[in-house]
Each structure stands twice: as C-alpha cells, then as structure tokens.
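To close the chapter, one final illustration. This time we ask the reader to focus less on the individual chains and more on the assembly as a whole: which components sit near each other, and how the overall shape emerges from the parts.
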Amino acid sequence: MDEASSVARVKNTSTVRVSGALADRDGERLVEEVSGIISEGKKDVSVDLSGVEHIDSRGGAWLALASLAAQKEGGRVSLEGARGEVAEFIEMIRPVFEERARPAPPRKGVFETIGGKALDAWGELTDACGLIVDAIYWSFIAPVRGRGLRWKAVTDEVNEMGYQAIGIVCLINFLLGLVIAMLSATQLRRFGVEIYVASLVVIGFARELAVVMTGIVVSARTGAAITAELATMTVSEEIDALKGMGLNVAKFLVAPKFLAILVVMPILTILGFIMGVVGGFVLGVVFLDFTFELWWEHTIWAVTVGDVTQGLVKSFVFAMIIVIVGCHNGLRVVGGARGVGLATTRAVVMDIFFIIVADMVFATIFYFIT
Amino acid sequence: MTGAEPIIEVRDLVAGYGERVVLDGISFDVYPGEILVVLGGSGCGKTTLLHHMVGLLKPLSGTIRYWGRDIGRMDEDELATLLHRVGISFQGGALFNSMTVGENVGLPMREYGNMDEEMVEILVRMKLSLVGLANSGYLMPSELSGGMKKRVGFARAIAMDPEIMFFDEPSAGLDPILAAGLDELILDIRRLLGVTMVVVTHELESIRAVADRALMLDGGKIIFMGKVGEAEQSSNSRVRQFFDRRPDAAIGEQV
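The assembled structure is written out below.
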C-alpha cells in the first residue's frame, strides 16, 4: 500500500525521516525515536517530513507529542521539508508545538480570601436590602402615588402561588396534624390525659407548625419557581431588555410577586392551621372515641387570639423572605443552564434556613415577653 | 463533481411541524468534497432542512440517505455511529456554558475516542489553533464574544475529524471582518481536512465566497440549484430578487 507510513532514524545522525501518512502505530515509534536521540545527549532533533504527502489531525498530534517530549528533556525538534498542504497544516497548528503558555491562576493569600468573601457577603447583603426597599416602594408607595402597579400580574401570581397551592398545603398540614396527635396521644395516655392532645395540637399549629410547614411548602414551590423564572430571564438577557426599555425590574417583576405572596401566605397559613386541627380531630373523635363536643371545647379553650396572631405575623415575615431570597438569587445568576440550577438550589436552601432562623428569633422574643 | 457517487441523497423530503408543511417534497444530492450552500429568506425552512439531515427531526415522508443508507430506517445506535462522521456547528455556537472552552471541544473525544488524556489535550489545542484560539482553552464560554463562540463551535464540530460538516448560519450576526474570517476558515477546513460541507446561510457575501453550488428554498420548494453565478442570471424573479437585495414591495411594482 502506498499509503503505508514509515518512521526511521537516518543512521548516525539526529534526523528521523517520516514518510506516508503518519498512522498511530508509527506515531508512537516517532516519539520513541525522538526520545532516544535526546537521551543520547543530542539536543537538536530534526524530523524530515519531505516524504509526507498528507497529514491528518492524529498525525499532527503525534508530531506535537514528539516535540513536547523533547522539550521536556531540554531538547528541540525542528520539522523540516514539509511541503504544500502539510506545511500549511503545520503552520496553522503551530501553537500546539510549544509548551502551553497558560496564565497561572492568581494565587490568593489567606487574608485576601477572607477579605474577598467578606466583601462578597457585604455586597450580597446590600443588594438584598436594596431589593427589599425597592419591593416595598413599588408595592405600596408607588401605586398610591399613581406610578402604577401591574394588577393583572398580581392576580396571576395570587392564582399561581395561592390557589394552586391550596391542595398540597392542606394535605401536608392535615397529615402532620394526625401525626402530631398520634405522637402525643401515646405519651399522654400514660397520665390518662389524652384529651389534652386537642389543646396541644391547636396551640402547636397556631403558633408554629402551620406557618413553618406552609412556609417550607411555599418556598419549595413558589420560591424555586421565582428563582428559576428570574434566573432564566437573566441569562437570556430578558432582564437587560426590560432595563433597556426603561422598565423597572422591581416594579415589573418583584412588586407583583411581593404583593401576591403577602396576600397568599397568611391565607394558606390559616388553611393549614385549620387542616392541622382537623387532623387532630380525626384522631381524637374517630380513634380515641372522645365526643365531638368535648374535643371542640378543649380546642377552643386552649387557643387564644394571641397564638393565632403569632402565626400570622410570622407568615408575613416568611412570605417576604421567600420572595426576596427568590428574586435576589434569580437576578444575580451567572452562567447558563447550570447557573440557573445552582441559583434555584441555593434559593430553596436559603429560604428554609432563613425561615427556621426567623422562627427561632420569634420563639425567643415570645418566650421572654410572655 | 459529476461522476462521483453522492454522499447524501435527499429524496422527496416532506417536513413540517404538526399540520404545517415547511418543506414540500424536495430532492437533491451532496457530493464528496463540495461546499453546498442552502439559502433562502428567513423562515423558508433552511434550519428545518438541516435538522432533518442530521436526524434531529423525523420527516413526514421521503428519505435521506448517507452513503446509500436510509437514516430513517436506522435505530438509535446506528444513527449515533453515523453521526460520529458528521460535525455540526450550531447558530449560536451551542456551547455548554458550564464547561471551559477546552472541555467543550474535548467532550466528544473523551466520550467516544478512548484516547489518552495527553492525546486529547493535544488534539483540543490543535482544533482550537485551527480556529485561531489556541490559548483560550481555559476560558469559560461566558467570557467569549459572539464570534469567538462560533469559532469554538467550529472547533467542537471538527473535533472528531468529520467527513461531513453542517454549518447553521456561520457568519450571521458578525461584523464583515469576522464574517469574512469565518468564510475563510470554512474554506481552509475544507481544503486541509477534505471535508464535505453543507452551509445554511442567507448572507450574500458568504454565499459568493464559499459556495461551490447553491440550493435555494422558497415556499417549501427548491427554486434554484446550481452555481452561484448562474443564480444571479436566473430567470426566476424570486431568485434574482434575493441576489439583488430588493424588498418584497418592489416585486409588486415590477409586475
């Protein structure tokens, strides 16, 4: 076959002659021959390509590997005699024959790293604060001053965030009510005061469980959706388009979501509260054989307006956390599809974290003032 | 070109989305070593044709044969094996944003090539050198300009040394200097690597620079096929309108 290649060292010189198309088998041979010459102490090796008619990228890669192997040992390979297309191809891939000149990644000291992180955190905090101020302004102050609000967007969001979420919020709170009632009934049975399960469930749900469970469901549903929506808009330059039209992002996107969630969260929390108590009722009346009146009496007797208010106050705060965290993460996304995924994950994790932290702060405050 | 067996044969291809027929029974051949330019106005089905030719979409009827084999009858594995011999350069580059430029170009080699890591790195650098971006391997796609993204897209398309390449709007949206550079790159790749190319474009300058033959689509039919020079003398008013860059209203006045 005339296409067959050969690699041979010209006797007693430091020249390797290549002819034909350079196949993989001969490529390895070429690297060996070149390394062999270098190990004899000769620094300059020439590769004679005058017999090569055609070269493909694998062949080029073998030449480059031979050249790099020589450079590693302090030697040099010069390619000679290449003609026509072969010469042109080698010229185009010239950078491959030189040691990779990769810029060293900038090294950072400990303090620089800490300082950088602190600055990042500070930047994020001020961004988030700016977003809160904007959201409040465009939700409450601007509409009053006649600067408008997108009512259609608000009602759409209420439907999406609230109406569509009723089923899952009710189901989860109902099941949790049942679980809490069962859990406490087994403990209180030892003292013969299972009737207090009614009080326990109603207080627990009024103050704590309904709002936290609803907050977590809403952050997983709505918080993730907000971040994904805004992040996709950011990476596909839609946010830039809005700004370019002179439209305010806070007014256009954040305010409708902010208002909608402030309407929706308390309502969902109340629904969740009712369903949790219903869960307790099912256990008490169906399984523990208490009468409906007795259970109802103990439920009403235990709960105060203060307990319910506590839950509602928290629901407003959690609502703000979800929208601000969602919008903030969506708007600062970098990178493409993967960036959107990371931002969404980060948003949901932050939502749940801040909800629990805020809940703890409230618990501490109420503990000391009551 | 005559006498050679065609690499790709498209016969009576009917394509569309749902009820809407975009391509209405078109037939043509692609011969080895040529650059065939598919041209036509926006929305005439150029990209649809391209997507059918690489098996991304299934035709409503008609056949597409590569080296005599109908891709409509291939199973997924056979089609994948065939596509190893095909390189596609997408309109916006279609780079994976989460990977560096080098990883983007090296992806098909690492997935299919069973090569040494050293070899892959050299080849990645070589493909990037061919498109003039030898030292950009460590950059992320978000750090590149539009023209650079396209060139990295080229580099990824030639990663597996394809025998056939498809280009979707290679020079659209670039300044004339960059566009000319990309046209030259297409010609260089063809000459040095001996690749057959199908280029979809509506840039007149590009068409004149690279085309061996041109195929013009309009209203789902082929309204011209032949050398670009002939197209400019064509008797079809629609073809001449395209090459003279006259808006639609002008045709009305003429009639």
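Chain A touches chain B through 26 residues (CB under 8 Å). Chain A has a mean pLDDT of 87. With these observations in hand, you are ready for the problems at the end of the chapter.
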